[in-house]
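Hey, quick one: can you model this chain's 3D structure?
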Amino acid sequence: MSRVRFERRQQEPLPIVWIDDEECYFTSKTQIESLKPAAPVLMVRPDERIGISRRQWRLICDFLDDSSGFPPVSLDEESTARDHAAHVGL
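Sure thing. Here's the predicted structure for all 90 residues.
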């Protein structure tokens, strides 16, 4: 959220990629949308067991190459991601 606010103050705002297996959810997407980002935001929720998938990596690369075709905020959740109550990392 703070980065979205920061980019809104810039003369040439940059797109944002947010990768997080615990925070990238629809509710977070809605909160970011309410800030009206100045540049597109791509939220990526990988499967916490495997990390970013090849499909997600291609999506991130496409977004970084040209984010102009993306909506203001995009949420990509890996289909194999499981909901969990707390951090499961080591």
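One thing worth noting: The CA atoms of residues 31 and 40 lie 14 Å apart.
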